[in-house]
Amino acid sequence: MLRRCLSLLALLVVGCSAIPEPTVTPSIDAPSVSADGLLDRAAVAAAIDDELDCSSGEVTIDEFDDTVKIVGDCEKVTISGESVLVVAESIGSLRITGYGSVVIARSLDEVRIEPGGQASLVQYEQGAPQVDNRGEMSVVRKAE
């Protein structure tokens, strides 16, 4: 349910003229969303049980419909899976090639969304990452 809520939120934030604006009724397990559509990283992280350790400095997520929390600071994160939700602390380099990903991070240094990374949402709290966004209907934004 959490993944569906976040995927729907990503589409609403990114927008699509061919899709009528749906009415969303929050569920009990939906994360906190501010009036301007920002996701609460701590609330989303608390709802995720699956963790990936980044002690090697690098994580690759290639599953479909995966929801993970990355533990520890991560130099490189690659997302090639589709409909992926990731919550992380610090990411050096983030690369998204899979469709419909949502990444919520405390800090980011670099973001690259490839053309296959369509309809993806990347939200960060700190830093001023270098952004190369080639993903149609994809958004990289700072939570302020």
Q: Layout of helices and strands, plus pairs?
A:
Blueprint: H1 2-14, H2 41-46, E1 51-53, E2 58-61, E3 67-71, E4 74-79, E5 85-96, E6 102-113, E7 121-126, E8 130-133, E9 139-142
Parallel strand pairs: 1-3, 2-4, 3-5, 4-5, 5-6, 6-7, 6-8, 7-9
Portion of residues in beta strands equals: 35-45%
Radius of gyration: 14 Å
Order of helices and strands: HHEEEEEEEEE
Report the end-to-end length measured between terminal Cα atoms: 26 Å
Counting DSSP E segments of at least 2 residues, the number of strands comes to 9
Class from secondary-structure proportions: mainly beta
Largest sheet: 9 strands, parallel
Q: State the helicity in percent bands.
A: 10-25%
Summed over residues and divided by their number, the pLDDT gives a mean of 83
Please provide a written account of the structure.
- The chain is mainly beta and 144 residues long.
- The protein has one domain.
- It has two helices and nine strands.
- It has helices spanning 2-14, 41-46; strands spanning 51-53, 58-61, 67-71, 74-79, 85-96, 102-113, 121-126, 130-133, 139-142.
- Strands 1, 2, 3, 4, 5, 6, 7, 8 and 9 form a nine-stranded parallel β-sheet that branches.
- The longest helix is centred in the N-terminal third of the chain and has 13 residues, at 2-14.
Condensed summary:
The chain has helices spanning 2-14, 41-46, and strands spanning 51-53, 58-61, 67-71, 74-79, 85-96, 102-113, 121-126, 130-133, 139-142. It is mostly beta strands and 144 residues long.
